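Sample intake sheet
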Amino acid sequence: MSCYRYQKIYFWLAQRYKFHTIFLLLLLFTSLRLINAQTVPEPTSIPELTSISPQGGQRGTNVEITLNGKNISKATALLFSGEGISGEIGEKTGEAAVFFSGQGVSGHIPNDSRLVAQVTIAPNAALGIREIRLATPKGVSNAQPFVVGDLPEVGETEPNSASSKANWVDLPTTISGVIESVDDQDLFRFNAKAEQRLICDVTASRMGSLLDSFLTLFDPDGVEIASNDIANGLDSLIDYTIPTDGEYTLRIRDLRYK
């Protein structure tokens, strides 16, 4: 009998113990969920950077950049990797208007996807690819690449998809551009002299871009004299010695038309 009662009592205690264990685990799990809910922002409020333009600047200069993303309108600071580079957030752009019927009511929709900032690059800043992030009350965004260079920088101007509308550039230079559609191509015209060594180096996939670049160089008569698809990953490179004085044209496009 005692053995039986023992077995019965043991069984009951085991069930009770298991019950309390499960209850404790559920209580602990619930508490953790409550703590996490208070400390981790909701996914919809986390800041996200999708692009910046231009993606770099010459050291010793100030550069105005546009940052695009989600949940960035309340950003309080720009964060950079490395030394010698800083920035200040300026205006919020592209706010949409709200129209009301009747008089005495007005409003606007704050744009939560675009910011303008001023970036200062010190003369002695190290060259190369940096990371830029946005700090907001809801957290810090993902990183986007920003290149510190040593050459003057210019941006492409559309339309420049035909030889007659090629952008004029003075060498040496760094050009910041965008392939905007599957059939987009950007052309640039410049002066070069015989025996000069011309190096055209694309930095795109090395910064996370999906562009599979293809470079083509044309002589003053419009004849193709050099081209390259892959040199550094998907990035193209042309290293060419100019044969005669004249105006040359460089074209860049996506090899896969994507």
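Comment: The longest helix spans residues 2-39. Confidence is low (pLDDT under 50) at residues 1-37, 94-99.
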